[in-house]
Amino acid sequence: MKKFLSILLKLVGKLIVIGFITFVATFALYMFNGENKLIYYVVRPLLNKHYDAQVRDRRIV
Amino acid sequence: MKITDKLISAIDKKLERFDPKWQAEHGVGGLRSRYYDKTGVAKWREWRGVKDTFYDYTQWLYNLYSMVLMVGSAPVACLKGFWEYRWMGSYLGTFMFIDRLFEGFRGYELRVAHMNMHAIVQSLTKKIALVLANDKRLGGGPLSDNMVPMDEVLPPLFMTGFKDLIPIPLQTLPEFIICDIDQHIEPYYIDVAESFGLPADVCSRCSAETGVAIDDAFPIIGKAFLTTNMPCNASEATSMFQRRRLGLPDMPVTMAMIHNEPGAHPYSTQVLRDAIAFIEKEYGVKYDWDALFERAKHMNEQNTIELEKWDIFKTPHSALCGIAETLYRLYSWASVNGQEDYFTENDRKVIKIMRKAYEERYVPFNGKTRHRAFLWGPSAVYYTDFPTWAQNCWGINIVLNMDSTMGHNMIDTEDPEKAIEDLALFSEKGVMRHHAVGGWENVNALWEWAKNFDCDMVIFNDNVACKGMNGVHALMEEQARDLGFHFIFLEHDLEDARTVSRRDMRKIVNNYMTVVLNEEPLDPTLVDFDDSLAF
Q1: Residues A60, B95: C-beta atoms closer than 8 Å
Q2: How far is A60 from chain B (nearest CA, A)?
Q3: What is the per-residue pLDDT across B428-470, written as a single tens digit (0 to 9) for each?
Q4: Measured between CB atoms, which of B89, B241, B244 is closest to A51?
Q5: For residue A52, what is the nearest residue in chain B, using CA coordinates?
Q6: Beta carbons of A60 and B42 less than 8 Å apart
Q7: Phi (first) and psi of residue B378, to 5 degrees
Q8: Separation between Cα atoms, residue A51 and residue A43, nearest integer Å
Q9: Does any CB of chain A come closer than 8 Å to the CB of residue B535?
């Protein structure tokens, strides 16, 4: 029983630490607008290069 | 006061100098101070106090979760979609879009705004995954031939009688809603259309749809296509261009335009019957009235709640206002139209909060509202956050938008004959049909609406390429003067931000507020700024 409780406590402790680290990481990403900066300055310019290089089948009919 | 409230209050006091609204009040900054020039990229997110910032953060996570689910549900199709379609790349601007929409929102207005927004995000992400996973261009899927592409301005409720078919408003994903998110996407498709000789002075929405068709950028789904007659020649032209390019059997569902005359309803009712017969023939399925009644009950409940919302809008105590109201009603009516339970459930939750806020005599935006405005005419799709800017900069609360007044009649849920008549009336009062081009009486209904909602101001959207509305400009100005409304004619080019930019639109309002009303802005950092490179 004691062993079980100690494993359980360790597990809960680990979950709390992981949860806290996840919170700090995601909150920092949120607060510093990280994902939008990445999308605006890196991802979209790369995608636009690809779209501009596409050969589209442009016709009316 | 609970100890946690005391603690939060102490932290809020300590950090209040980071709140842009506090900065504007104290002359040390404002809502625009945290942006890089031109790009619309914020250096950091808005500090709204502990509770509201944390709430905004949880909703950011919630929306992120929906997007992860979207990619997770069809990873290959989504990646192929991003690679194939230019418009898919624009959806990456969604987070920036949501931030723009709810800038300066606090308390109850922030809560209901996010509830409405998440309803849209969860619905839209599922729809994108569904369409891409069954797009024949990307390999197709088991539901490719169960989908019915239809014009996005045709309310899809009547299609729910085909319980095994999935109506998809075809233009919504590549053209309409994406223009809300990214102001630079539609000019690309407009240029494609114009490079084929389409005149540059037609409605940019129709031009953009044509460009998507010519550029071969519509997903390929379904076995037959329901088009419609929209209110102008440009729209009819784009329907023709789309049917030529898609090459599917099609039926134009031509609803009556001048529908106030009693003779119009039997005609529109017959057109709906013909559309049902067309789908039965093309898809080899039978119409099920009970399936329709099931969804019509949801639409009726949503419309009943909507009418209660309107009663609260008439007071200064509505937690739901501005773009949080407009965008939700537009999407939930025109695109969802009773098909998704989530929206009924969301409406039930939102109205509860609205009732509570009303009972507490809650005043949104800290009581900074100076004018109550009715927004009339189709709005600039590339400047969706205009109502938010108007509130934050000048204290103009957009109480209701013309598009929100779409079909709110109840649909009979027992008698098929009565139901189809109700559906015809409901469809005649669809997006842009009723008040924009449904005849003079419906256009001129503006003043009655503005009076009923206790508005002192009317902002009249002036789509510069809309031939239908060009003639009413002076008539409206005269009436506003006679009836004593503050009146702003707001020029825009619907989906082409190059003709009349967001900054130009702001200038029109700024001029009226300073020259005519002699007022000072609530937040000077918002008066004039360059966001030409922003999504």
Answers
A1: no
A2: 5
A3: 888 777 777 777 888 888 999 999 999 999 999 998 888 767 7
A4: B89
A5: B86
A6: no
A7: -60, 130
A8: 12
A9: yes
User: Which has the closest alpha carbon to B256: B52, B426, B399?
Assistant: B426
For residue A26, tell me if it sits in a domain. Answer: yes
A59 inside domain: no
Q: What pLDDT does residue B231 have? A: 65
Residue B404, class by beta-carbon neighbours within 10 Å (0-12 exposed, 13-18 middle, 19+ buried)?
buried
Cα–Cα distance, B266 to B284 (Å, whole number): 26
User: Which range marks the domain in which residue A30 is found?
Assistant: 2-53
Write b or e for each residue in B205-220: b if 16 or more Cβ atoms lie within 10 A of its Cβ, otherwise e.
Answer: bbbbbbbbbbbbbbbb
ipTM of this predicted complex?
A: 0.92
Chain A closest-CA separation from residue B353 CA (Å): 27
Chain A residue closest in CA terms to B92: A39
State the Cα–Cα distance between residues B263 and B169, nearest whole angstrom. Answer: 29
State how far the Cα of B170 lies from the Cα of B160, in Å rounded to an integer. 16
Residue B415, number of CB atoms within 10 A of its CB:
12
What residues of chain A, 5 to 24, have a C-beta less than 8 Å from chain B? none
Residue A37 maps to a domain: yes
CA distances, B518 to each of B409, B484, B514 (Å): 42, 17, 4
pLDDT above 80 for B362: yes
Number of domains chain A is built from: 1
Whole-prediction pTM value?
0.95
Q: Please indicate, yes or no, if residue A58 is contained in any of the structural domains.
A: no
CA distance B450 to B460: 11
What is the pLDDT, as a whole number, of residue A21? 96
A50 touches chain B (CB under 8 A): yes
